[in-house]
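User: Reviewer 2 asked us to show a designed sequence for the structure in our supplementary figure. I'm pasting the structure tokens here. Could you produce the per-position amino acids so we can include them in the response letter?
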């Protein structure tokens, strides 16, 4: 009897060891093998991109094609769930004389079908009329972003707030890397562009935005020195960098050798563009509470709507 018990315990220990060996290990940066919450670990990325009648149609379930971070986590209580994303993008986008401030609207859609949203609905004292909107990526509040600069909304929607690291790693071949399209139809590139925007034989360099931290102290609201906690801590300075206030420029790209206006996602603020140069397609518009004004202006129109994005307030 005693010998049988010992044999049983040895077998149980052996099986447990095999189970531990077969379990996918935790990944660097706090990632886990699931990331989708209960019952979602087997969900795969599904995305369809087709062209018809002058438009590009992107349909996706919103599941990333790279390993996401652990969700739920301490600062984000939501699990990733499949979505029904359906977006339409014109093949012939045009620039407008006045850029459009995004507010809490969508900036665009990545090639893997994951939405890109630069601004978060987090405001000083939880009041979107306060005029002070927290920066999602490196503000003083932790929104539970994973190593791909993404997190999850209560609806289960996984979305990027800055550089989509995993997607870029998969697509980057050392030159300009197309990673998606903005809501106005213009292409979006990851960080690097031609040094001479009109010469495809010029070196590929990191693009520098034209925003910088304001100096001094905030005159209202949270007070304190401008330190990047809020998006209003930044101001646009024309000609400071390679890019305009929409974090874009006109030039040639591998996909558009004749030249086109295009955006960049950069490693420094604004990360994702906060303005659009063209006209937003209605498929990207949504309703809901919004607010927060663009950098350089303390607060936007009180009671502003999340979508459609509006033109920047007068005086900016």
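Assistant: Here is a per-position design you can include in the supplement:
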């Amino acid at each position: 009897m005693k010998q049988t018990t010992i044999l049983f315990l040895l077998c149980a220990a052996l099986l447990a060891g095999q189970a531990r060996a077969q379990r996918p290990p935790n990944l660097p940066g706090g990632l886990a093998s699931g990331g989708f919450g209960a019952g979602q670990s087997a969900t795969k990325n599904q995305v369809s991109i087709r062209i018809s009648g002058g438009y590009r149609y992107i349909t996706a379930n919103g599941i990333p094609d790279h390993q996401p971070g652990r969700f739920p986590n301490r600062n984000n209580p939501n699990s990733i769930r499949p979505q029904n994303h359906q977006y339409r993008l014109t093949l012939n986008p045009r620039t407008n004389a006045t850029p459009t401030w995004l507010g809490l609207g969508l900036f665009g859609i990545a090639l893997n079908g994951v939405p890109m949203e630069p601004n978060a609905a987090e405001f000083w004292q939880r009041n979107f009329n306060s005029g002070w909107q927290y920066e999602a990526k490196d503000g003083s509040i932790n929104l539970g972003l994973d190593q791909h600069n993404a997190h999850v909304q209560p609806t289960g929607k996984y979305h990027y707030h800055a550089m989509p690291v995993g997607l870029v790693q998969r697509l980057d071949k050392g030159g300009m890397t197309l990673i998606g399209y903005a809501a106005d139809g213009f292409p979006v590139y990851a960080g690097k562009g031609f040094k001479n925007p009109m010469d495809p034989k010029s070196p590929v360099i990191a693009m520098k935005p034209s925003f910088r931290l304001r100096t001094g102290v905030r005159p209202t609201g949270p007070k304190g020195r401008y330190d990047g906690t809020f998006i209003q801590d930044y101001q646009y300075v024309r000609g400071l960098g390679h890019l305009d206030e929409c974090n874009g420029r006109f030039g040639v790209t591998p996909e558009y050798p004749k030249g086109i206006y295009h955006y960049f996602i950069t490693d420094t603020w604004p990360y994702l563009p906060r303005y659009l140069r063209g006209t937003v397609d209605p498929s990207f518009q949504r309703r809901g509470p919004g607010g927060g004004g663009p950098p350089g202006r303390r607060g936007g129109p009180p009671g502003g709507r999340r979508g459609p994005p509006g033109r920047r307030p007068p005086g900016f």
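For the response letter, you might also mention the following. Residues 1-34, 287-292, 297-316 have pLDDT under 50 and may be disordered. The first strand starts at residue 47 and ends at 52.
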